[in-house]
Design the sequence.
C-alpha cells in the first residue's frame, strides 16, 4: 500500500525538502514522493517563475526591485499555472529575479506557510533544506552532471515535437547553475544534513525508489510508518 504519513499525537507536519540544480529530476521525484506519501506538493521554482512572468508581461526590467517586490506579493500559491510558467525564457528570467533578497523574503514566507499544512508537504527548489525549512524531516539534494541534464532537457523538447541544439542547452544549464550557486542570498548548496542523490546514472524510477527508501528509513526510525 502506498504509505500515508500520519501526524501522530503532536500532529507536526512531515516535511520533505528537495534541492538541486535545474534538470536534476527534482520535480518528478517530488511529485512521486508526494503521491506516495500523500503529502501536499509545492514546486517553489514556480513562485520565482510567477514573479518573472508578471514582470515580463508588464514590460518592466528584471532588475526593477519595486516591480519585483510587487509581483512577489501578488503570488498566490493556489494559482500557479505550470503550463503558463514553463517557458525556458521564464526560467531564465526567474533566476535573475531570484537574486533579489526582498523578493526571496516574500516568497520564502509564503513557502513556509505552505509547509505548515498537515499532514505535511514535499517542497522542491534550491534553498528548501538550507533556508525555507531547515528543520525538514528529510532533506534530499539531487544532482546530475550538466551533460546528463542537458541531454534530458533535449529529449523532453524533442518528445514535445520541438528541436534544440545540445550545446546551447548545455550553456544555458551551466549559466543557470552559476547564477544559482554564486548568488549571495540563499545560494544553491546541500544542507549539512542532506542526503545526496546523484541521478546521472539513474532513470526516473530508480531515482524515486532511492528517495523513497531514504524517507521510509526516517519514518521507520520514528515508528510513524
Ligand atoms: O526550478 P526552476 O527551474 O523552476 O526554478 C527557476 C529559478 O528560480 C531557478 O533557476 C532559481 O534561480 C530560482 N529558484 C530559487 N529558489 C528556489 C526555487 C527556484 O532561487 N527555491
Sequence:
Amino acid at each position: 500500500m502506498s504509505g500515508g504519513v500520519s501526524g501522530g499525537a503532536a500532529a507536526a507536519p512531515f516535511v520533505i525538502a528537495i534541492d538541486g540544480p535545474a534538470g536534476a529530476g527534482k520535480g518528478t521525484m517530488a511529485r512521486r514522493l508526494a503521491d506516495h506519501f500523500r503529502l501536499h506538493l509545492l514546486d517553489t521554482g514556480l513562485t520565482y517563475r510567477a514573479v518573472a512572468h508578471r514582470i515580463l508581461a508588464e514590460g518592466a526590467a528584471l532588475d526593477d526591485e519595486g516591480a519585483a517586490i510587487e509581483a512577489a506579493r501578488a503570488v498566490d500559491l493556489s494559482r500557479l499555472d505550470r503550463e503558463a510558467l514553463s517557458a525556458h525564457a521564464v526560467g531564465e528570467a526567474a533566476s535573475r529575479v531570484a537574486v533579489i533578497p526582498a523578493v526571496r523574503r516574500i516568497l520564502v514566507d509564503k513557502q513556509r506557510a505552505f509547509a505548515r499544512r498537515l499532514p505535511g508537504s514535499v517542497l522542491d527548489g534550491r534553498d528548501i533544506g538550507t533556508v525555507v525549512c531547515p528543520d525538514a524531516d528529510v532533506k534530499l539534494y539531487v544532482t546530475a552532471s550538466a551533460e546528463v541534464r542537458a541531454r534530458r532537457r533535449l529529449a523532453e523538447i524533442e518528445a514535445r515535437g520541438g528541436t534544440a541544439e545540445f550545446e546551447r542547452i548545455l550553456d544555458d544549464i551551466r549559466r543557470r547553475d552559476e547564477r544559482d550557486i554564486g548568488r549571495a542570498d540563499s545560494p544553491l548548496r546541500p544542507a549539512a544534513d542532506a542526503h545526496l542523490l546523484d541521478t546521472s546514472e539513474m532513470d526516473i524510477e530508480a531515482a524515486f525508489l532511492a528517495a523513497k527508501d531514504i524517507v521510509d528509513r526516517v519514518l521507520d526510525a520514528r515508528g510513524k510508518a
